[in-house]
Amino acid sequence: MEYRQLGKWGARLSVLGLGSYLTIGFKVGLDESRRMVHVAYEHGINFFDTANAYNKGLAERMLGQILAELPRADLFLITKVWAPMGDGPNDRGLSAKHIREQCDASLARLRMDYVDLYMCHRPDPATPLEETVRAMNDLARAGKILYWGVSEWPAWMMVKANGIARDLGARPIAVNEPRYSLLWRHPESEVFPITRSEGIGNVVFSTLAHGMLTGKYLPGAEATPDTRAGDPDQNAVMRRLYWTEENKRKGQELVQIAAELGTSAATLATAWAMRHPAVTSVILGTRTSTQLEENLKALEVQILPEVLARLDALYPTPAPVGGA
Ligand SMILES: NC(=O)c1ccc[n+]([C@@H]2O[C@H](COP(=O)([O-])OP(=O)(O)OC[C@H]3O[C@@H](n4cnc5c(N)ncnc54)[C@H](OP(=O)(O)O)[C@@H]3O)[C@@H](O)[C@H]2O)c1
Fold this sequence. Notes:
The chain is α/β, with parallel strands linked by helices. It has a single domain, classed as NADP-dependent oxidoreductase domain (TIM Barrel, Alpha-Beta Barrel). Helices cover 38% and strands 14% of the residues. It has 11 helices and 10 strands. It has helices spanning 30-42, 58-67, 96-110, 129-141, 155-168, 191-198, 236-241, 245-260, 265-274, 289-296, 305-314, and strands at residues 3-5, 12-14, 16-18, 47-49, 76-81, 115-120, 145-151, 175-177, 201-204, 279-284. Helix 2 (58-67) links the parallel strand 4 (47-49) and strand 5 (76-81). The chain is globular. The structure holds NADP nicotinamide-adenine-dinucleotide phosphate (NAP).
């Protein structure tokens, strides 16, 4: 396993991490979840990603139960706050109150006395950034979190929050968690350069575009019910962002390029995301330990310049917003 520094900060994360959205504690039961976590750990993965909102706390509960079997010092755990956890006016967002309440609730569900990194799952325009920065700093001072971070915040907001943190003498953002894949290259234009200049690491998600980049969805065919695309409980985001005939066709070309390298499309797409110097870690979202074993082979894939050029031609970088 390769370990990368978390931006400019001291912690080192495995370049592949294991996530738990729609899988652990939701579509995947305890036995297979335990198998996945143990396969991950045995391969040197030290970074696990979850959120309070993943199946309303049940992902944290199951992941916490399994991680309790492993040495705490070996683990780097991210959980998140922001999404609604109840119907009350303070059961969502990034207010000091909700952050404090949810951090304690997450720690209980995870069976941990601190989380390594606590993350703002999305921006909350109704709460001043200063309040959120102070709330995160207070949690760190109380020993409940070590670092804090953000997910899918615009670059300007990260810079502004870090400026506020500097003025307050509080901890700045240590990590950003953006969507990033061959089918979603937007972070390359602004988010990656700015996070690098701020010393913020990037742990990236949906690097297989929910499975579209595995090539398993064939042109002209509907998805089978045992896949994410074929399951109405989990396919809303995927259908909205990636479900086109063109993407299915491109998936077949990706399979072909990968086959020439003696690997699979899933493995090549994972290795491609890892190659970017702004990326600290790629969060794998596997549903089975077999998928996990396959995607771990990305560690062995070298992407030479001519392959990179073919992938660029197949999945071009989108023009920057406001640019040509
Ligand atoms: N910060 C955020 O807002 C945010 C948002 C989303 C995710 N995340 C994190 O990032 C993690 C990964 O996200 P994601 O689940 O969207 O990732 P993804 O890797 O794009 O999609 C994972 C899905 O792809 C399919 N797949 C994976 N490997 C495969 C293989 N080798 N062969 C065939 N199919 C394969 C599986 O779906 P099937 O069910 O079809 O087998 C799997 O559930 C999550 O678990 C979560 O921790 C964070």
